[in-house]
Input
Amino acid sequence: MAVGTHGESFMETDPPAPHPARRRASGGEGSGRGLDGLAHVANKIRDAVESVIEGKPSVVRLALTVLLAEGHLLIEDVPGVGKTMLAKALARSVDCSVRRVQFTPDLLPSDITGVSAYNQELREFEFKPGPVFANIVVGDEINRASPKTQSALLECMEERQVTVDGTTYALEPPFMVISTQNPVEMEGTYPLPEAQRDRFTARISMGYPDAAAEMEMLDTHGQASPLDRLAPVAHAADVRDLIEVVRRQHVAPAVRQYAIDLVSATRKHPELRLGASPRATLHLVRAARAYAALDDRDYVVPDDVQDLAVPVLAHRLLPTPEAQVERRRPEQVVAELVKRLPVPSPGK
Output
């Protein structure tokens, strides 16, 4: 019986049958399809990204969590702290199709989704796919584009498809959008609409590196960018297999109820005028599955939900005007809710 951090077990009372995620598949190195294979491939990706991003292991782990949870990542911070570098490093670590879009005020929706152009030789319209037709789409400074252009990502992020001129085109899995944005107080930015923010599984901030990490950065980045030396360590097929492993992670009813209670509490909080949506609950549980898998566990414990609550929920919340005047941030509200709500008892 597996033991959680809050007591006995958050798995079934009776020992389950051998979990398919525990089996190893025959093949070459890293071809395991269970948790062992997941840890092997995930560690290679993590090491590759950390060779570029110095001193940010928790940020790298969260980016991996979002990738395995089939989500999208929003990286928000001031310029120059490595937002785009993190997105590029994660994209280059996986041997899959990658497209980068620099969002600018004059960018049009068709510049992202693609456009139907008339072919004079064939005498018919043919579709020219846009950069969104890739496994990993890096959107740099997404909030410098107009809300109309930002909305071009809504359908593809949620439904993994793009509709142009009445025709729907499916996007090949895995599909992940990694967007960077500058704080809204900076010049030339548009606030992301609530519907856009709600489609991002998590938001992270890079923060400034400590002195030791910054000294290491001067050594590794001083002569040439480490991105130039970064080679793929996994394939798109590996990521698809790992996603299947994460989908089979066990989440006990008590842990699911705990996630629901946490999200529901944001909708009733007096300092918030907009709480988290049901989509936020789904993203929180999906991310918790991936977070547990990266810890080599095939079950989720409340600690996983607590660790992910702020990055998954805070960016979806809107504070009241009174809370804004008092400089109360949604991150503080979520952290207080995590401390206040009772943790579920094991075995329920």
About this structure: The chain is about 40% helix and 15% strand.
